[in-house]
Amino acid sequence: MTTDVLLHTDGRAGRIVLNRPRALNALTHEMLLTVRQALETWAADDAVATVVLTGAGERGLCAGADIRALHDDAKAGGAGARSFFRDEYLLNHRISQYPKPYVAVMDGITMGGGVGLSAHGGVRVVTERSTVAMPETRIGLVPDVGGSLLLAEAPGELGTHLALTAASMGPGDALLCGFADHFVPTSRLAEFTGSLARLDPAEAVRTFAADAPPSELAAQREWIDACYGADTVEEILDRLLSSGVPEAKEAAEQIRAKSPTSLKVTLAALRRARALGSLAQVLDQEYRVSCAALEAPDLVEGIRAQVVDKDRDPRWSPAGLAEVGEAEVARFFAPRGGDELGLG
Fold first, then answer.
1. Structure confidence by residue, pLDDT tens digits, 273-282
2. From CA 302, how far away is CA 74, in angstroms rounded?
3. What secondary structure does DSSP assign to 56-80, as a single string?
4. Residue 310 and which of 28, 36, 121, 276 are 20 to 30 A apart at CA?
5. In terms of domains, do 33 and 115 share one?
6. Res. 80 pLDDT band, cuts 50 70 90
7. How far apart are the C-alpha atoms of 137 and 234, rounded to whole Å?
8. Is the pLDDT of residue 1 over 70?
9. In this structure, are residues 60 and 108 in contact, taking their beta carbons and an 8 Å threshold?
């Protein structure tokens, strides 16, 4: 068992604390396996009525996977990364089906893999410090951990906007987009989490939850829905740039900086996720996409630019949207023979 995940019981509650605060609680493979084992143990323990997920430190629940390790493994062939993705997505699905209340406290930064451990739970709490995002296109990847379904099911085209730009959500946005359920002010957060040792989560929420700050995205629905409803990334960019809305132009510039391949695969993944509907089927799709990304050049290059060399100047291959054809996009969704997740 790793000390990067702290486990203990407290009254009625089984507590999981992600414990890599200096790394924003980024996930290692061992952490995933430890969380999974705890969930299985507590599912069979009548003394545990509720599971509570929090992050150590003051900065956030979890910034996602340890992408430097992902970078190194992808360069070495990707076998470890494929195993990581498999166990991560199986855990995401288990959380969605967990037989007891699963309370995720999304305080501070909650991104990527952190969303996968929280947003599929039954009770999802944000605070005024919450910053929630699926920023995979920044590193040449595609939203995963069931995030493509959450984004696809967000109102209108908000999810498409968030996926392509890699933009973050504040607490009001996370509630609007279906990533969270309740807002608890940080001034009451310790009382809320402490009360779960004795209270049912529904009662704790009634006692400590408050009205969330307004959503910033809600006021931008008109231009977002109009622009992102297009069928291609190229047309989305054209609509953003011709809309006359300053925020739309800014979004276009953010999109232009991302991997062209990642953008096109992301748009296809969200559209397909809408049609699939179930989390199990979407996770199956995401496993195919993520494994294909390990075999493409942009993931290693994106992580290099953002995390390893930190020059923020990725050299995407291909470099332009016009060079990413339908066949290249389809390759990411192709069956992988014996290497499938197999949930759906």
1. 999 989 999 9
2. 12
3. SSSSEEE--B-HHHHHHHHHTTSHH
4. 28
5. yes
6. very high
7. 16
8. no
9. yes
